[in-house]
Amino acid sequence: MRKGVLDALRDAGSPAVPLLVAPTGYGKTSAVHYSWREVLREWGRVVHVLPLRALVSDVASKAVKRGVPPDLVSYQAMLKEVRVEVGEEEEEVRLRKSPYMLSPYVAVTYDSYLLSFYVTPVAELSRVYAHRDLGLLAAAGGGVLFDEVHLALATDRLRSPESRASASGDEQQVLLQEESKAFTALVTTIELLKRHLNRRVLAMTATLQRAAVLWLSRELGGRGVPVHLHVCLGRRGLKYFERAAPRVEPQGLDESYSSLYEGYGAVARTKVSKEPVEEEARRALDHSRSILVFCNTVPRAVEVYRALKGRVDAEIRLLHGRMRERRRDEVLGEIKRFLKSGKSFVLVSTQCLEAGVDLDFDTVVTEVAPPGSLIQRAGRAIRDLERRLAQEGGPRAQVVVSLSEESVESASAVYPWEAVEVSVRSLSVGEYFFDWRFAEEEPSFVDLLAQHEAEPRLDKGVENHLKTMLEVRVLAQKKVEYLLRELDQHVEGSLLRDSALIPLAVRGDGYDVVPVSLSFLRRRGRDVLEGEGTKVVAVFENGDMRYVELRRLLESPLSTLYSLKMMVEKGADLVGLLVKEKAYDSEVGLV
């Protein structure tokens, strides 16, 4: 176990909440798995909370591969199944899905965790009344590990005070909820877990800005929960996080990790280019076999995929969040086989691979994005440093950042311009060494992070709503429909995201699910969904179909879906809103 990680795990038993900052690939999660006996002995249970469904699948699988017995591991996320090959004979094991989160080790999304903590167990969302106490006990029973908090908090989408002030009154209110909901939910939940329930809590991150750490430390400290900051970074990183919390443990880097820095510095190069990513991907094939291309939007990813397909001497694959789960699994399986065999390929993807899958590529080519996203994307290149450095020849571009017009335009479509501008302004065109991993010397990823230091805000309305829901949970028994209606009214159906995720049902061999945001449905709902007039079709596992007003769904997503479930026979779960056959392309997904 690398330096600093065990100290942070043990510190979780103190009255403080430890925040562990360590680079991508340092071994934060693997430390929990390899020391599972000690962790379970000290914690009782581990609820491992993650921001992405793909991460839930990956982390649960890795737990078993690293020695945690399969019967101790489960997951809860909008996933059909999670399978893992174990043992020398690579026997395939299907992991249990646990909507009640009662296993000794459970990997769960932030959405499912917060829903269980504040509202009701996911398994009881279609009941009239629910065992709300069971959801709280499961969510708070044992220790809670909040992982990849920088992704959950979406710090790349924070705006500066000047940018907020320039917005209109209505826009300011929207920005407040968009930017502050996740921070408010995290602070409130940690306060309740530590101060009132006396639970073990550990938060882990790779790219959380210093301003966000200072804010979390101030907010939690003011609630009687001090933050202990454990920093496992090189010299630049230790300096960056000085005095970011009342107590900072400057752990530095483990010798086994820091010893790789000299080799990393000798071969790793970053190229910043004005060329579009498709052109840079073609050039990267001259020196790399496995290339991952990051695009900022699904339409742009499809455009790049089509531009490369049939025009390069390599396999081309596309992967994004609006593809059928089965197709995503097929693509990931192919990529793993390509990596194992050494076959040349290019994988075009979106933000869904920034942290979702533990794959190791020769070269990452990415459109420009805010600092945090760029750091996450760069971490997909040469992840297995020790093995990779033994194979590398001379210096070459392992990370390529495109500042082309197409890249800037796609970034501006999904991120605040000021956050994108930081990267455009900070990265000089050319090829040079850039430390994306160690934070040892300038220029490094912490120097890039330091250029985007927007401070979060707390939404008192959301905080009061969360605490009221918990109080009502103890003092009164409310119908599930009423609770979901309150969530729709106060937080647009999600305690973490901008809005709830809505499942879409895609025809095929049965139905497969593609989760999308409310914002996507507002833009494209009438174009992609089956229906008549203002109504769309909802399909259930037993084959039943029901019409629902699209406008009603957009205004009150959770309570509307609940009403639909109550219209069909008991036990028939909702698959999703039915997608038009022509709207979904089997090759490129839902664009």
Question: Describe it for me?
Answer:
Strand 25 and strand 26 form a beta hairpin. The strands form 5 sheets. Strands 6-3-7-2-8-9-1-10-11 form a 9-stranded parallel β-sheet, with helices on both faces. The chain has 3 domains: 3-257, Rossmann fold; 271-437, Rossmann fold, CATH 3.40.50; 499-590, no CATH class. The longest helix is centred in the N-terminal third of the chain and has 28 residues, at 169-196. It is an alpha/beta fold and 591 residues long. The protein has 26 helices and 26 strands. The relative contact order is 0.12. Mean pLDDT is 89; it is low at 162-173.
The CATH architecture of the largest domain comes to 3-Layer(aba) Sandwich
* Proportion in β-strands: 15-25%
CATH superfamily of the largest domain: P-loop containing nucleotide triphosphate hydrolases
Rg, Cα atoms, Å: 23 Å
Which parts are unreliable, with pLDDT below 50 for 5 consecutive residues or more?
Answer: 162-173
CATH hierarchy class name of the largest domain:
Alpha Beta
